[in-house]
Predict the 3D structure of the following.
Amino acid sequence: MRKKLTWMLGVGGAAMAALLQLGGTQATAPSGFSGVPLAVGRFDEFEVENRAFFPEGGELEHHLWRSRQTTKGPSDLHVQSNYWAPGGTTGWHSHPGHSLIVVTEGVITAYEGDDPSCTPRLYQAGDGFVDPGGDHVHVLRNEGTVPARTVAVQLIPAGAARRIDAGPNPACPF
């Protein structure tokens, strides 16, 4: 009986290891990175749209600005402060919803999971960028010598996990 149990555990462990390595990719863990939740709020479904038109004068002359947000079902809004030590990384991941991110200190380097050239995009203090979420896999790194910080505002389906770990982009050497 003991031999049979040991054999079953061994086969089960091997099967689990194979499942975790499907496609040859494994999730990458964050390192030198931490996030602190600042606020979380639940919203019922909503639809808002705003427009502004600047007809004359100034930098925005003859410019139409538009913002639209529509949700179906309840959503959770997360506001988070993120910190990267020099050399820190979020690890490869995605989110179920989109994020608006503002760099408040240092420089963040972003890489896309589907970019065959592994081209870095740099964002410095004062820059904002959008993470579209969904199947958008990415990693954010601090490749500088000083700490980096961001504030992220993220809208996701109510009760969903904020982060979905993903395997690395094979084109990226790190």
